[in-house]
Design a protein that fits this description.
alpha+beta, FAD/NAD(P)-binding domain, 21% strand, transmembrane helix, flavoprotein, Cholesterol_Oxidase, AB_hydrolase_fold, transmembrane
C-alpha cells in the first residue's frame, strides 16, 4: 500500500459490487463529473461513477495533475459569440455557480506571510520592469492545516512544485477530497478501472458500455474490448471524461447508433497554450520541482487580458481573442536530468555565441560556466543553468480548428499547426521581451514538428455548446444535453459537462446539474454538512441494499487473482440430454458463447465450511442466443476441487449470476469434471481441466440451454501470465505458491489415481449419522426361522401413503414387495435397497407409492455359522419362509391372501429361481418378479469367466487367510496381507472410466466382478461401500463359480436344476428380466437366455426384458439416477401384473 497523507476513506468499490442499474451514471471523475456525482447523490439518487484510472493515482481526473489555478472567465470572454444565448446575454449566468464552486474548492492566493518563492518574485520583478499587470493567482491549495468544506482534514502545502506530476503532501483541495468524497458520503458508488467505450439509448434509459481494466486482464485486452460490461442509467448519464475522453465516447456511440450532431469532434482547441523556458538567465529562479521547494507549480501571472497604462501587451489587447496571460511554472522533477541537454541543443548558435562573447565576455563566460556546472553536478546545484531557468505558460485563444476522429477505433487529432498562427507569434514576441529582461535564451518543451505544433495543457471542445440552440452549430444545448441531430431535439438524460479551465468547468457543471434537476423537480440538498470525514468514516448509507455486497465470511482473500477466457457452443433452448449433443446442436446453428472472467482467490478460514479455496468471479458472458449484448457477471462463485455428484473424482464448479440488458436474471452453472479417466493420461487431464460443461437457468430455475466451453491452448498460456496480487507482490508470493501447490496436488491425485489406496479428498467420508437418521427407518425388524431352523431377518417398511389409496393402475390396494439382495456379507450396516445416502432408494420409491416393503437379509448375511457353511441353494428356504410370512401376516382389503411382488438381485434372484424350480415356492404365491442380472441361466462376464475357470484363487486365499474374504474393515483391522492385497487389487483390470482408489470397490470387483459403471454412482455411495458390503465366505463363492462354469443353477451336489420337468414349476409367473448393458458380473446374455427359453416354452405374454443402457450390475439398484432410469420400468411391470392378476397357473 502506497503512502497517502490524506486522512480520508477509500472511495472506490470492488467491481463485483456494481449493481446492474442506477438512477444516475457519471462517466469520469474530474471537475464536471465530481459536481454531477455530488449533487445527484445529495438529491437522493443512486449514483455510479465510472473512472478509467486507479484510485489515488487516477480518481479525480485533471484535478490530480493541474496546478489548481482558480480563475473565473472575464465578462468580456463570456460575451463572445461562441457561447449560447442563455449564457452570452446574461452577465450573471454563472455568478451563482462560481460561488458554489468556490465554496467547495476554497481557492486562495499564496499567503503574503510566507517567504515569497523566487520564481514568483522574478515574475513580479519582470512585470514591473515591463510595466505589465502582475497578480497572484487563486489556488485550490491549503497553505495551513485544517478541514476543507466537505470535512476532510488537509495538510499545509510543502512547496515541492509537484502539482503537475501528482502532489502527495495532502494539501491539494482536488476533486477526490471535495466533490467525490461528498458524493461518497451521500451514497454514490465509485468504480475505478472502468473505461467507458460508448453509450446506447435503450428506451428512456441509457446503457453505458465499458471495459474493465484490472491487472492481469491486459493479456486478454482484445477480448476485454470485445466483451464489454454495461450498467444502466435510468434517469441521467453525465459525460465528464474530459474533452478528449468525452468526445471519443460520443464518436464511438455514433458508430453504435446513437444519434448526435454532425459536429461531434469538431472545433477543438488547445486553449492557445504555449510553454516556453527562459534558459540560463542571470538570476537564480529555483524553478525545478523537488527538494529545493520552489513553491506551488503556478503562483502568479502577468495579465495581458487587461490593458496596462502604456498598452504594452500588444496591439491586439482590445481584441479578447488575441489577449493572453503568462504564468510562472516549474520544471517537473522527472525531466530535470535530461532537460539541460534539450535546452542546449535548442539554444546553441555558434555565431550568436561568439558575438555575445565579444560583446559581453563576462556575462557569456558566466552563462557557459553555469551550463557546465549544471551538466556536471546536476540540475539542483545552486548557480547552475537549470537553477537559473524560468518556466512560462501562456494561455490565450486559438483558431478552434482541431478535429478528433476515430481511426481503427482509436482517437486521432488532426489540425493545422498552431505554431503558425499570428496569435502565437504575438505571444512569442511578448515572451521574448520577458526573457530579455533577464538575458535568458528561449527554450521550448520540444523541437518544432513539421507543422510547427504547440503543446497544450488544456484541450477544449469536441462537443461544444451550440451558439444558436441547434445541432447545426454545436453538439449540446446550454444545459449540456446532447442534440439528437441537427435540430433542437436533445437526449434529455445524456448530459455532457463542459470542459474549460477549472473554475469555469466547475461553474458550468454546477449550472447544468442544477437546471436539469430543476426541470425534473429534483431537489438537491446543498445545506446539510457532512461533519468530519476520516479514514474510518462510513457513508450515510447506500440508496438500496446489495445482498451480494460482501463475500462469504467463511473465506478471506488471498490477495491474488487471475483471468481466464473460455469459448464454445451452446444450444438455446436445448432439448438434448447430454452436453455433447447440446454442443453439436450449438455448432450446427452457430450459437457461440464466450466467457471472460477475472477470479479473485479466497481461502477458507479456520472453522469455516465449504471447499478449501473459492474464487470470486467478475466478468462477462457473451451469447447472442441469450442476449443481444454481453451479460455481466458480478460476484459469481468458483468452487475449487469439490467432490462431484457422479463418478468424477473432483470438480471445479462455476455458479455465475448473469444480468442481461433485457432485464432478465439468469444463472450459468458450469462444471469441470476431473475423473478417474484422466489417470496416467496427459491429454485426458488437459481435456478435463480445460472443459466446462454448462447449463443456463432462468430466474425460476427452468433450463434455457446447455453446452460446452473450453480454454484454448493459446488462452491458457495467456492465462498463466495473468496472476497478479492486490497488495505487495513479494509478501503475497507464499500465499500464491501454497495455492498453486494445492492445485497441483489435486491434479496429481487424479493423475496417479490407481496408485492411491485411499484419499479423503477424492473419496468423501462416510455419511454422518444425522443424515442417516433422517432417512426412512424400518417400521419393524423381524427374525424368522426357515424350515431348516436357520435364522433370517426381515425388515418391514410401511407405506408412506395410507393403505387403501387408489393406485394409478386400478382401484385396489398396492401389493407388498419383497426385496431379495445378492451376497453382501455378514451384518452390513445397510441393505442395498435402502441405502440412507442414496438420493432415492428402492424402498423409498415404492413405499412412497403405497407399497409395504419387505427387505430380506438371507442366511449368508445374518448368521455367521450358517453363512460359513451355506450356499445359494440353501437360501431358497429363506425366500420360502419370507413369502409365507408375508402372505400370512400382511393386511389386505379383501379376503384373499396378498401376493407379494418380488424384486430380486443377483444371487437373490438365483435363489428365487431355485425355489421355483424345486417347487418350494409356487407360482400362484407370487404376483410377479423382477429378476435383475441373472435368473436361471448364468453367463459370466469376461474376467469372471477367467476367475471361475479354476478354484485355484479360492484355495490360495483360504490357505493364506482362511474361509472369509473381507470387504469392509469397519470392525476389524487390516494385517500386512490385506494391505498387500489392496495394492494388488488396485491393478484389477477395469476401463479407464472405472478406475478408483477405493479398496472396498477393488475388493468387490475381485470377489464378484465390477459391480457398476462408476459414472452412475455419486460420491456418497461410492465412499460408503463398506457399509453395505462386508465380505463373503469362500464356500458361497465356490458354489457360485461352479454354477457359472455350468451355465445354470446347481444344487449343493452340483446337479443341474434347470430341467424340463423343473421348468414347469415356473409356469404362470410374470417376470421382468433386467440387465445393465455394461454388466461385467453376468453377461446380459444371461437374462436373454431365460427370456427366450420361457417365451419358447410358455408363450410370450408373461415375459418382458429391459436392457438398461450404460448401466452395469448393481447400479440399476443403487445408481444416483436409478429412480429415473430404472425404477419406473419395475413400477410399470407391477401395475401390469395387477391388471392381469389371473395367471395361467390359476
Amino acid at each position: 500500500m502506497e503512502y497517502r497523507p490524506d486522512n480520508y476513506p477509500t472511495l472506490s468499490h470492488s467491481p463485483y459490487q456494481m449493481k446492474p442499474e442506477y438512477d444516475v451514471v457519471v462517466v469520469g471523475s474530474g471537475y464536471g463529473a465530481g459536481v454531477a456525482a455530488s449533487r445527484m447523490a445529495r438529491a437522493g439518487k443512486s449514483v455510479a461513477v465510472l473512472e478509467l484510472g486507479a484510485e489515488w493515482r487516477g480518481l479525480g481526473g485533471g484535478s490530480l495533475l493541474n496546478a489548481g489555478v482558480f480563475l473565473e472567465a472575464t465578462p468580456e470572454t463570456m460575451r463572445l459569440s461562441a457561447w449560447p444565448a442563455e449564457i452570452r446575454d446574461n452577465s450573471d449566468a454563472l455568478a451563482e455557480y462560481y460561488a458554489r464552486a468556490a465554496a467547495m474548492l476554497q481557492p486562495s492566493t499564496f499567503p503574503t506571510n510566507l517567504p515569497t518563492p523566487r520564481k514568483m518574485a522574478h515574475l513580479e520583478e519582470t512585470a514591473k520592469k515591463l510595466d505589465w499587470r502582475f497578480s497572484r493567482v487563486p489556488l485550490t491549495t491549503f497553505f495551513e492545516p485544517g478541514r476543507n468544506s466537505t470535512g476532510v482534514s488537509m495538510c499545509a502545502n510543502q512547496g515541492s512544485g509537484h502539482e503537475s506530476t501528482g502532489l502527495n503532501d495532502g494539501s491539494k483541495n482536488s476533486i477526490p477530497v471535495t466533490y467525490l468524497v461528498d458524493a461518497w458520503a451521500w451514497g454514490a458508488e465509485i468504480f475505478c478501472g472502468c473505461e467507458v467505450r460508448y453509450v446506447e439509448r435503450d428506451g428512456d434509459s441509457y446503457l453505458v458500455h465499458f471495459a474493465w481494466h484490472q491487472k492481469g486482464r491486459r493479456s486478454f485486452a482484445e477480448d476485454g474490448m470485445a466483451q464489454l460490461f454495461w450498467v444502466r442509467a435510468k434517469e441521467f448519464c453525465f459525460l465528464g471524461a474530459g474533452a478528449l475522453g468525452t468526445t471519443e465516447i460520443l464518436l464511438r456511440s455514433k458508430k453504435h447508433g446513437l444519434s448526435c450532431s454532425p459536429l461531434v469532434g469538431r472545433n477543438m482547441s488547445g486553449n492557445g497554450n504555449l510553454l516556453v523556458f527562459g534558459y540560463n538567465g542571470s538570476k537564480e529562479i529555483n524553478g525545478v520541482a523537488g527538494s529545493t521547494k520552489p513553491g506551488p507549480t503556478i503562483t502568479s501571472m502577468i495579465d495581458c487580458y487587461q490593458k496596462t497604462p502604456n498598452g504594452v501587451c500588444g496591439s491586439e489587447n482590445n481584441n479578447k481573442v488575441g489577449a493572453f496571460v503568462i504564468e510562472d511554472g516549474c520544471v517537473p522533477e522527472p525531466f530535470a536530468p535530461v532537460i539541460e541537454w534539450m535546452f542546449i541543443m535548442q539554444t546553441i548558435n555558434i555565431k550568436h555565441f561568439f558575438s555575445s562573447f565579444f560583446g559581453c565576455p563576462l556575462r557569456q563566460t558566466k552563462r557557459t560556466l553555469a551550463a557546465i556546472m549544471s551538466i556536471v553536478r546536476g540540475p539542483y546545484i545552486p548557480g547552475g543553468a537549470i537553477q537559473r531557468t524560468a518556466t512560462y505558460l501562456a494561455m490565450s485563444h486559438d483558431n478552434n480548428e482541431v478535429t478528433l476522429t476515430l481511426e481503427n477505433d482509436n482517437p486521432q487529432l488532426q489540425g493545422v499547426g498552431e505554431g503558425r498562427g499570428a496569435n502565437i507569434h504575438s505571444i512569442k514576441d511578448a515572451l521574448r521581451r520577458v526573457l530579455g529582461v533577464d538575458g535568458a535564451s528561449m527554450g521550448y518543451s520540444y523541437f518544432y514538428g513539421f507543422h510547427q505544433e504547440e503543446v497544450s495543457v488544456h484541450p477544449l471542445g469536441g462537443a461544444n455548446m451550440s451558439r444558436d440552440g441547434t445541432g447545426r452549430e454545436g453538439v449540446t444545448n446550454h444545459l449540456g444535453q446532447v442534440f439528437t441531430g441537427q435540430g433542437t431535439d436533445v437526449h434529455t438524460g445524456l448530459i455532457w459537462l463542459s470542459i474549460n479551465p477549472l473554475a469555469t468547468i466547475t461553474a458550468l457543471a454546477e449550472r447544468s446539474v442544477a437546471l436539469v434537476a430543476g426541470q425534473r423537480h429534483i431537489k438537491i440538498d446543498l445545506d446539510t454538512e457532512n461533519g468530519d470525514i476520516d479514514t474510518y468514516s462510513q457513508p450515510r448509507g447506500p440508496h438500496y441494499n446489495n445482498s451480494h455486497a460482501e463475500p462469504n465470511r467463511d473465506y478471506v482473500s488471498t490477495g491474488w487473482h487471475f483471468t481466464e477466457s473460455l469459448e464454445g457452443h451452446v444450444a438455446v433452448p436445448s432439448s438434448c440430454v447430454s452436453y455433447a449433443a447440446a454442443e453439436l446442436e450449438g455448432k450446427g446453428c452457430s450459437s457461440t458463447m464466450g466467457i471472460l472472467l477475472t477470479v479473485e482467490i479466497y481461502r477458507r478460514v479456520e472453522g469455516g465450511t465449504g471447499p478449501r479455496y473459492k474464487g470470486l468471479c467478475t466478468g462477462t458472458v457473451s451469447c447472442r442466443s441469450l442476449s443481444r449484448r454481453t451479460m455481466c457477471v458480478m460476484r459469481g462463485d468458483l468452487d475449487f476441487f469439490v467432490a462431484g455428484n457422479e463418478s468424477a473424482s473432483t470438480t471445479l464448479t462455476y455458479t455465475l449470476p448473469l444480468c442481461t440488458v433485457e432485464g432478465r436474471r439468469l444463472t450459468l452453472i458450469g462444471v469441470k469434471a476431473i475423473g478417474q479417466s484422466a489417470a496416467f493420461s496427459i491429454p485426458r487431464l488437459w481435456e478435463a481441466t480445460t472443459t466446462v460443461k454448462l447449463h443456463i437457468l432462468d430466474f425460476n430455475n427452468n433450463s434455457l440451454g446447455a453446452g460446452v466451453v473450453r480454454i484454448p491452448l493459446l488462452s491458457f498460456w495467456r492465462q498463466m501470465r495473468t496472476f497478479h496480487t492486490i497488495g505487495p507482490r513479494l509478501s503475497s508470493l507464499p500465499v500464491l505458491l501454497i495455492f498453486l501447490l494445492y492445485f497441483i496436488i489435486q491434479l496429481s491425485l487424479v493423475f496417479f489415481y490407481p496408485l492411491i489406496p485411499f484419499c479423503g479428498i477424492l473419496s468423501p467420508t462416510r455419511a454422518h449419522s444425522q443424515a442417516i437418521s433422517a432417512k426412512q427407518q424400518p417400521s419393524e425388524i423381524l427374525e424368522i426361522l426357515t424350515s431348516d431352523s436357520a435364522k433370517i431377518r426381515l425388515d418391514v417398511y410401511d407405506p408412506i401413503q395410507p393403505l387403501g389409496t387408489e393406485s394409478r393402475a386400478g382401484k385396489q390396494s398396492q401389493p407388498p414387495i419383497l426385496f431379495l439382495p445378492g451376497i453382501t456379507g455378514l451384518n452390513t450396516s445397510h441393505s442395498i435397497f435402502a441405502l440412507p445416502f442414496q438420493r432415492c432408494n428402492m424402498v423409498k420409491y415404492f413405499s412412497s407409492r403405497g407399497h409395504r416393503c419387505y427387505v430380506l437379509t438371507p442366511r449368508w448375511s445374518h448368521d455367521g455359522q450358517t453363512a460359513k457353511d451355506g450356499t445359494v441353494f440353501d437360501s431358497r428356504l429363506d425366500i420360502a419362509a419370507a413369502i409365507h410370512h408375508i402372505s400370512s401376516t400382511s393386511p389386505t382389503c379383501d379376503s384373499s391372501s396378498p401376493k407379494p411382488y418380488i424384486i430380486a438381485h443377483c444371487q437373490g434372484s438365483v435363489a428365487l429361481a431355485m425355489a421355483l424350480l424345486t417347487g418350494i415356492v409356487k407360482p400362484e404365491q407370487l404376483l410377479g418378479i423382477t429378476a435383475n442380472s441373472v435368473f436361471m441361466n448364468q453367463v459370466f462376464g469376461y474376467w469372471n469367466s477367467i476367475k471361475a475357470s479354476s478354484t485355484l484363487l479360492i484355495r490360495a486365499y483360504e490357505f493364506l487367510d482362511g474361509p472369509y474374504f473381507p470387504i469392509s474393515f469397519l470392525e476389524r483391522r487390516k494385517d500386512l496381507l490385506q494391505y498387500i492385497l489392496d495394492f494388488l487389487l488396485s491393478l484389477y483390470p477395469v476401463a479407464r472410466r472405472d478406475r478408483c482408489t477405493s479398496p472396498s470397490c477393488h475388493r468387490t470387483s475381485f470377489a464378484f466382478g465390477l459391480l457398476w459403471n462408476h459414472e452412475n454412482l455419486d460420491q456418497e455411495i461410492h465412499g460408503n461401500i463398506e457399509t453395505f458390503f462386508a465380505g463373503t465366505f469362500t464356500r458361497s463363492l465356490e458354489h457360485i463359480t461352479r454354477m457359472g462354469c455350468a451355465g445354470s443353477c446347481l444344487n449343493n451336489n452340483l446337479e443341474p436344476l434347470l430341467t424340463q420337468k423343473n421348468l414347469q414349476n415356473v409356469r404362470g409367473v410374470p417376470i421382468l428380466f433386467m440387465s445393465g448393458s455394461e454388466n461385467q458380473v453376468f453377461n446380459p446374455e444371461s437374462t436373454l437366455r431365460d427370456y427366450e427359453l420361457l417365451r419358447r416354452t410358455f408363450g410370450e405374454h408373461m415375459y418382458r426384458r429391459f436392457l438398461v443402457e450404460r448401466y452395469g450390475h448393481l447400479d440399476t439398484i443403487v445408481g444416483s439416477q436409478a429412480d429415473k432410469d430404472v425404477y419406473w420400468k419395475v413400477e410399470g411391470h407391477i401395475n401390469w401384473c395387477l391388471r392381469n392378476k389371473t395367471t395361467g397357473a390359476e
